[in-house]
Amino acid sequence: MSDEIQVERDAGVATIVLNAPDRRNALSLEMARALVAACDAIDADETVGAVVVRGAGGYFCAGGDRPTLAAAGRDPAGPEAWQGIGEIYRSFQRVGELEPPTVAAIRGGAVGAGMNLAFATDLRVVGRDAKLLSGFVPIGLHPGGGHAALLGRTGAREAASALTLFGERIDGERAAAVGLAWEAVDDSEVDARAAALAAVPGADPELARRTARSLRVELGPPALPWAAALDLERASQMWSMRRKDLAAE
């Protein structure tokens, strides 16, 4: 695994650290591949019940690495460029597939593909002064990586449109107010708050993974109707009841 992705484990919580502060943790091909490998290792470790994703150096992620994007622009249909952008996409998609519940701890800012990475998680804690912007249209690029779908699934359509179509940027306080983040806190408190949230599912990894699977299937997109959700949840809820009963004996 690349040194640009580090994984820390503590009491059922794994923390993935993007460790390239010199470029504000922009995603290179090497980092993207390492991020996928880190997610594979976490899913294989059944003692992990929650995951925090954060950036080193006080910044979450500045998007795709500029040299990588520039190289792709010279021959977008070329096999290497096509595969390379696909690997960047795959990295945040893999974060979205993690079996445990996931929290993004956003300090400093998230731009472009960095927003994709943040919105691939289940929950976001953001610094009040952190800057969030799609950043594609103002520099003449079409959004990529399912950007609109990731923003839109929060239910904040107006915010998704403002960011994606009109190039608006917002701070963490505004992100929380419009439903794009769970909570905005002082920059110094972001990592601790994310860790505290992760500690709850982290204490019971098996239950956490089952519950995350059910929640994601039910909420979609596409969302399940209530009748289907009743059937989906029943087996896992009955399993948890039985487990609790056995523990009490």
Account of the protein in words:
Helix 2 packs across helix 3 and helix 3 runs parallel beside helix 4. Strand 2, helix 1 and strand 3 form a beta-alpha-beta unit. With 249 residues, the protein is of the alpha/beta class. The strands form two sheets. A six-stranded mixed beta sheet has the order 1-2-3-4-6-9, sandwiched between helices. The radius of gyration is 18 Å and the shape is globular. The relative contact order is 0.13. It is built from ten helices and nine strands. The model has no long low-confidence stretch (mean pLDDT 91).
Brief sketch in words of this structure:
By secondary structure, the chain is α/β, with parallel strands linked by helices. It has ten helices and nine strands. The strands form two sheets. A six-stranded mixed β-sheet has the order 1-2-3-4-6-9, with helices on both faces. The protein has a three-stranded mixed β-sheet with strand order 5-7-8.
Continuous helix count: 10
Poorly predicted ranges (pLDDT <50, ≥5 residues)?
none
Neighbour order of strands in the largest sheet: 1-2-3-4-6-9
Radius of gyration over alpha carbons? 18 Å
User: Distance between the terminal alpha carbons, to the nearest Å?
Assistant: 44 Å
- Total strand segments: 9
Biggest β-sheet strands, sense, barrel: 6 strands, mixed
Structural class: alpha/beta
* H/E topology pattern: EEHEHHEEHEEHHEHEHHH
Mean pLDDT: 91
Tell me the helix content.
Answer: 40-55%
Strand content: 15-25%
Q: Using the alpha-carbon principal axes, give the shape.
A: globular
